[in-house]
Design goal:
It contains 12 helices and 9 strands. The protein is of the alpha+beta class. The strands form 3 sheets. Strands 1, 6, 7, 8 and 9 form a 5-stranded antiparallel beta sheet that branches. A two-stranded antiparallel sheet has the order 2-3. Strands 4-5 form a two-stranded antiparallel ribbon. A hairpin with a 5-residue loop joins β7 and β8. α2 runs parallel beside α3 and α7 crosses α9.
Length: about 300
């Protein structure tokens, strides 16, 4: 990997985790992996797939998918390695191992059926009669297991105790065994050396988080006031619900829905002082449609220890 590529990765991770100061002169434009239209045409050429004259990128992706090459796998590989030169399609979808993400909630039972999210209840979920439609679209949520996250954070905390910086670790070759996303998790340990990663809990928020269709995850929430991404997904509390500038009217709640999501609470807060979490699964839309209904659920969950 070239020095310039390494520097770009350092700046990207540091900006996401807010470990560096603003530096507009050196800042590179954000990569939009989903907008690179040359990739599908290049892959078609590599695998001998002929396209009609004037074919669109969508046509190229459709042709690739017919050969078992999925856009989601291609862009996930690009996100982790920065290139598709060494990409090889998988003959069969297999859960990634070792340093790659693996679903913490894998379920191999064959009796799961899909039902409408609007009618899904907690009992449906417990009885395994419900699978989130997002899972049908994108597969299991692409997140590390709780133990893996704890291991990565602990590793970062050990580096912090040694006085190491991310740049020293990266340039010194100490992180060669970690993917980009694993390094981001490790950096949480660098930034929060005393953080004890908590258990997974259930939280609630208004609206489903934005989906990273190529990564099989959610994007972090965005702080519009400060024009930057948050460090995790924003979730609601009774205090936030009563004090936020966010639209919490019944009309908006009905339109966007109240979503239940499992996650790990981060040791920091969002722009409205709301909790931030690392999501561990796809969110589920609930039947809640009003401000009072959401507040009642949040108060109940807080008393029961189910959410912060």
């Amino acid at each position: 990997m070239s020095t310039e590529t390494e520097k770009a990765r350092v700046r990207m991770i540091n900006r996401i985790l807010h470990l560096d100061a603003e530096d507009d002169e050196e800042r590179e434009p954000k990569k939009n992996y989903g907008g690179n239209t040359r990739i599908p045409f290049g892959l078609c050429k590599r695998y001998g797939i002929d396209l009609p004259e004037g074919a669109s990128p969508k046509d190229a992706w459709d042709a690739l998918e017919g050969k078992g090459i999925k856009a989601q796998e291609v862009f996930r590989h690009l996100k982790e390695t920065g290139s598709v030169k060494d990409f090889k399609p998988k003959e069969k979808a297999v859960a990634p191992k070792d340093n790659n993400k693996e679903p913490h909630n894998s379920d191999k039972s064959n009796d799961i059926v899909f039902i409408n999210t609007a009618r899904a209840t907690s009992k449906d979920v417990e009885k395994k009669k419900y699978v989130n439609p997002r899972e049908k679209q994108f597969g299991k949520y692409n997140q590390y297991s709780l133990n893996k996250i704890r291991d990565l954070v602990t590793r970062g905390q050990k580096y912090a105790a040694e006085g190491k910086t991310y740049e020293e670790l990266l340039y010194g070759g100490k992180l060669n065994d970690l993917s980009f996303d694993a390094q981001m998790m490790m950096c949480l340990g660098l930034e929060y050396p005393k953080w004890d990663v908590p258990e997974i809990k259930t939280y609630y928020r208004i609206g489903e988080p934005s989906i990273d269709t190529y990564g099989g995850t959610y994007h972090n929430s965005y702080n519009s006031m400060e024009n930057r991404p948050e460090k995790g997904i924003s979730v609601a509390t009774p205090e936030w619900l009563d004090g936020t500038f966010f639209d919490t009217t019944d009309k908006n709640i009905t339109r966007r829905g109240v979503w239940e999501i499992k996650g790990i609470e981060l040791p920091t807060h969002g722009g409205d002082d709301e909790p931030l979490i690392i999501p561990m699964d796809w969110a589920r839309r609930t039947n809640i449609k009003t401000h009072s209904g959401l507040k009642q659920k949040l108060v109940s969950a807080k008393k029961g220890g189910g959410a912060t």
